[in-house]
Model the fold of this input.
Amino acid sequence: MLMEGNERFASGNATHPHQSEDRMSELLSGQHPFAIVVGCSDSRIPPEVIFDQGLGDIFVIRTAGQVMDNVTIASIEYAVEHLNVPLVVVLGHDSCGAVTAVVNGGEVPGHLDSLVDYIQPAVDEAKAAGNEDQVLNNSIDYNVKNIVEELSTSEPILSEAVEEGKLIVVGARYHLDSGEVEILQ
Done:
């Protein structure tokens, strides 16, 4: 359903489902999202819009660079454990500012160093793989891959749900130029 919605969005045929007063009334008794989308805070990538979904359809968590901390993981655990959501999509994107800042290096003020600490392993991986022209793009993909791994093995709730076949965690990348989401292998 996410990819079908993205196809509608990218082709200019978004239907904007589940955005009526009736839908709001339906949701008074509770929510039943079919997917969790862990995305970047970047204002150009609102998951409900790029996947052409509406109220109550997806459970969205957004942080710069999709950085995970205990609160974000707990939010995902809540959706898996209490709402029985069977899918987590970790959504990276082209030209990610957080990843770009880490690739470029240098000192960062305030709490931004926590982003650097989290994203640095992906940048190190990309640099070790070579291909200087692709360090940023590869860092973005490695960052998504690392988050997928972290969530899949997060104990006890998420790892158990994955082992029991109740949860799938996948990585994806949003392309700013086309509006298309690509599933990463």
Observations:
- The longest helix spans residues 135-152.
